[in-house]
Amino acid sequence: MERTLWYKDAVFYQIWPRSFKDGNGDGIGDLMGVYEKLDYIKTLHVDAIWFSPLYPSPNADYGYDVMDYMDISIEYGGMEAFKKVLDGAHERGIRVVMDLVVNHTSDEHPWFQASRRGEEPYKDYYIWRKGADEKTPPNNWDSLFEGRAWRYDEERGEHYLHLFAVKQPDLNMDNPRVREEVKKIMRFWLDLGVDGFREDVITFISKREGLPDGSKLLPAAKGMSHYSNGPHLHEYLSEFRDIWEQYDCVTIGEAPLVTPRKALEFIGGKRPELDLMISFECMEGDCFMQEYIPHRFSLVKLKLIWERWQKGLRDKGWNFLYLENHDHPRVISRYGSEKYRVESGKALAASYLFQQGTPMIYQGQEIGMTNIRLATIGEYEDIQTKNHYHRYFTREPEAKRMERIWRASRDSARTPMQWDGGEHAGFSAGEPWFVVNPNYTEVNVADQEGDPDSLLNFYREAVRLRKELPVVRYGSFRQYERLNGKLFVYERRSKAQRLLVICSYSEEAVRFRAPRGYDLKKGRLLLHSHGEEIDGSGFTLQPYETRVYLFQDRRPRAEI
Ligand code: NOJ
Asked: Which residue has a Cα nearest atom 4 of ligand 1?
């Protein structure tokens, strides 16, 4: 089958199923709920849905601990409900991408159960090592979620590796049988009609031979350099490509620590091993590496990261653009302003939706959902959140520790979707599995539907425009005001069109001067957050004001 690279024109919408919409009233989001909302999703003009895991799971990490790769959890409605959603989405011209979580399984997966009993052929499906004794792990690696990366198993009499939770043992990808299993899973879903995969921490699947100790100097994540971009990664991804290249699908690899140059090793060249990569750099505008090591938000840092990716992949690869997903707190609470929630939400939307690449919108982002601040750690659900609280900064005063959690917890992105101002925000007829953000009476889909100035309608219009304008797909990228900490101004330029995007990130009014060669009166104002008259080439931008202009060049520029 010919691969059409449809993803280059697509906009994705991510669903974290547990909190999207409950269709059967048990308090847990499900596929019946998604089915009800397919028409809503269509109104966003998106082309594809990425589902966070829907497989049967004990939910130690909410679905990222898979018990059966070829089924759909009963909690979500089972296979029948999935097929209905798949067909319903396809009928509406929306593709469906599954999460492929193959760095690890659940410890309740039958493979692991058999492996711990030493049964063939599963004996070497996981990474087992002896260690000096029960209490001494085979090396000093840290788990990213729970203490050390090894757990001693009584039954097997050995330690197993778990880079994430204890209940998420790492698969041994060096075992060819395991790779065959992965290919079988891929074929299974692609044959069923799904349109691709988002591949969970795929750059961790190959571990360095001998599993050497990581640097002792690191305070956390010891060992990462021995499993991130490991020795056989390209080989294994290339094997997987043999399967998916036979389908018109997309592959999106989640890749912590990836840089543009590194990304091109995977997505560049004639036979890429992945179509797109999810880098974490765009999440580092207010932190070092991850949200638990915060610093003040720096627009300049964020802009330079965006620029590096736009330029770094130009003509060689394709960007994956996002501001939120289920692993990061809400972006308005981080990079924007809760006080100017709608305005800053619009500035953020325009900042990334007109860049080159494939954008994704995360559920609730389109209505400007914000972070939650729960009083005690006991009210949080997420394993990573709890781990951070109990393991790091434990000597700080309680209030400070909770502030860290408020700022960084993934649970802020996992509160139920706010559909309306009624009970439980219209998410469920029953008691929701997790707390609803109390701001749902002001922040919800129903209220924004009919309001032409709402964030929701701004997203719709921005997505519609981006798909209508070839310059967004093909144009070059250039930044103005690069070192200005209050403004993000960028240009997309093709032979006949120039798009100028102007976003203020300031709670105060900012004076703006159009870049040289731009007469704003001659441009068409396609999108604006405040809608005030403009005079001349300079004007004052209101807090978080956003404008998107299109210029048609009568004499096409020679250089492009
Ligand atoms: C990345 C996923 O996005 C995250 O939610 C999960 O906890 C880890 N990988 C482990 O699977």
From this structure: 327
